[in-house]
């Protein structure tokens, strides 16, 4: 357990709320060392010893480490002074420099978890703007390990790119699952069966990759020269990887250009 006080601005939202629950459940810190804020002023966590406020400056003043987990379009109106504090921003598309300038924080970390924080399965890359001591870095890593795996990246541009990759969480699997099911239905497979088959492939069969190398799996299946090989080769001939590359670049461009309205 750590002694620091953690504040989460927007600590009742999808990401902020999941992180708040996880740091308590995983005993990173006692509930009394957690402060969360929102505008609406209520959340079940407040009944478990977590301090809930609607005044973000009060949250900052009480905290050693402050996570900003509001939507990017709400950042401009936060109006906080975080002099002497470390801020960890989860916001897509807002640069560390813009965060440092607006909050006067002594240190800024940009982190990009995904929706799987809800089930403790997020991958969270994080980036430190300017120098941060190793104790603070280790705290950031431990914090995000409460909701999955995490790793430091050396370039801020990696955060923008990864916003479009791991930051999208279930989006690509959902697209794949929908495409598989829809195409099976077009081919005459009954709807329920098509949906069960597509879900099995994306949710269940992908678990086999947890401990196996994906490229080796593809090579083995292509070498088998069966049904799977024919399907995979059709995808390859139609530039599947190139399409993925374009999709990621498109998302990364939006992240780089900023989402603030
Ligand atoms: N969801 C994802 O998969 C995902 C992935 C990667 C990154 N992100 C980033 O994570 C951030 C949060 O996303 P989310 O999906 O968790 O959003 P969300 O569910 O809408 O949560 C936002 C929270 O912020 C609170 N809030 C809004 N304005 C506030 C203010 N002025 N002061 C204090 N609290 C305020 C809201 O509560 P009230 O309405 O009660 O104020 C709400 O609890 C975003 O910046 C997003 O870019 C999200």
Question: What brief labels describe this structure?
Answer:
alpha/beta; Rossmann fold; ProC C-terminal domain-like fold; 2 domains; 8-stranded mixed β-sheet; 46% helix; elongated; binds NADP nicotinamide-adenine-dinucleotide phosphate
Note the topology:
Layout: E1 6-9, H1 14-25, E2 34-37, E3 51-53, H2 56-62, E4 65-68, H3 72-75, E5 86-89, H4 96-103, E6 107-111, E7 122-129, H5 134-145, E8 148-152, H6 156-164, H7 171-186, H8 191-204, H9 214-223, H10 227-237, H11 240-257
Parallel strand pairs: 1-2, 1-4, 2-3, 4-5, 5-6, 7-8
Antiparallel strand pairs: 6-7
Helix pairs in contact: 6-11, 7-8, 9-10
Bound molecules: NADP nicotinamide-adenine-dinucleotide phosphate.
NADP nicotinamide-adenine-dinucleotide phosphate binds at residues 9-10, 12-16, 37-40, 56, 69-72, 74, 77-78, 90-92, 112-115, 167, 169.
Could you walk me through the main structural features you see in this protein, from its secondary elements to its overall organization?
- The chain contains 11 helices and 8 strands.
- With 261 residues, it is of the alpha/beta class.
- It has 2 domains: 6-166, 3-Layer(aba) Sandwich (Rossmann fold), CATH 3.40.50; 171-257, ProC C-terminal domain-like fold (Orthogonal Bundle), CATH 1.10.3730.
- Strands 3-2-1-4-5-6-7-8 form an 8-stranded mixed β-sheet, sandwiched between helices.
- The protein is elongated.
- The model has no long low-confidence stretch (mean pLDDT 94).
- The chain binds NADP nicotinamide-adenine-dinucleotide phosphate (NAP).
- NADP nicotinamide-adenine-dinucleotide phosphate (NAP) is lined by residues 9-10, 12-16, 37-40, 56, 69-72, 74, 77-78, 90-92, 112-115, 167, 169.
